[in-house]
Amino acid sequence: MGTTADLRPGAVIKFNGELCTVLESEHRTPGNLRAFYQVKMRNMASGRLYENRFRSGESIDFIRVEKRNYQFLYRDGNTLFFMDPNTYEQIPVDGELFGDTIQFLRENDDVQLAFNDTTLLAAELPPHVNLRITHTEPGVRGDTATNVLKPATLETGAIVQVPLFINEGDLIRVDTRNSAYVERVKE
Questions:
Q1: Residue 99 phi/psi, 5° resolution?
Q2: What pTM was computed for the model?
Q3: Four-way CATH pick for 2-63: 2.30.30.30, 3.40.50.80, 3.40.640.10, 3.50.50.60
Q4: Lowest-confidence pick of 19-23, 55-59, 84-88, 94-98
Q5: What is the mean pLDDT of residues 38-45?
Q6: Does domain 128-184 have CATH number 2.40.50.140?
């Protein structure tokens, strides 16, 4: 158990019987009213966003979460298999834990898995990954006056919007949180 003073971004709390990750926490003291904490959090199971006010000093049930690095081995249907690089132990993980970011996952990529004791709570890819473009239409010379984007297929099969100067075979950095092109990577 902790209090509202312990609320920090990244903390995991039990709210209405569900595990939630704290995204933002702001202490507010309105003029003639009691102080409170305005907290924005995300449900770890469903991904829903919640906003709630906690009274200052209110007790909150914090959950201890341990994040460990794992290496992606292979996929069997919707089940993904990961290996702990220290113990070589393999564990199966449901692909739904990754959400939309699963489209950027390649074999031998490193991911972080969050555990509460032995229960798997969440799976996260790194915020940015470098991927090679396997197919895109060539850009037209002189078509750079505006910020025009074109679709490009990556080596994982994902499709992202890239600028016109990007060609097949280029290595690009992609933001896995919003599936957006970041920059071209020099090799």
A1: 65, -140
A2: 0.72
A3: 2.30.30.30
A4: 94-98
A5: 86
A6: yes
